[in-house]
Amino acid sequence: MLGLIITILIVGAIAGFVARLLVPGRQDLSIVATIVLGIIGSFIGGMLGYLLFHKDADDGFFQPAGIIGSIIGAVIALLIWQWSKRRNSSHA
């Protein structure tokens, strides 16, 4: 169980940091928020991967496709976060 939690945190950190590098603009996120972004991205990427390819995690938990999906999901989550932040600041 502890290994699973550590793996989730590491993959979340990698996906979050790479997403922040790929999305232009400044993101005011702490390290913890970056890890949470990556974890949310993992859920989004996993859902998209399942919807597109109808695959499950039966082939193993730690896969390169999973990491790529996590990064794509984190980019999507970060773009949605930036869009909502811009939208809320323009209405204020």
UniProtKB/TrEMBL annotation:
<protein>
    <submittedName>
        <fullName>GlsB/YeaQ/YmgE family stress response membrane protein</fullName>
    </submittedName>
</protein>
<dbReference type="Pfam" id="PF04226">
    <property type="entry name" value="Transgly_assoc"/>
</dbReference>
<keyword id="KW-0472">Membrane</keyword>
<keyword id="KW-1133">Transmembrane helix</keyword>
<keyword id="KW-0812">Transmembrane</keyword>
<dbReference type="InterPro" id="IPR007341">
    <property type="entry name" value="Transgly_assoc"/>
</dbReference>
<feature type="transmembrane region" description="Helical">
    <location>
        <begin position="6"/>
        <end position="23"/>
    </location>
</feature>
<comment type="similarity">
    <text>Belongs to the UPF0410 family.</text>
</comment>
<feature type="transmembrane region" description="Helical">
    <location>
        <begin position="30"/>
        <end position="53"/>
    </location>
</feature>
<dbReference type="GO" id="GO:0005886">
    <property type="term" value="C:plasma membrane"/>
</dbReference>
<feature type="transmembrane region" description="Helical">
    <location>
        <begin position="65"/>
        <end position="83"/>
    </location>
</feature>
<keyword id="KW-1003">Cell membrane</keyword>
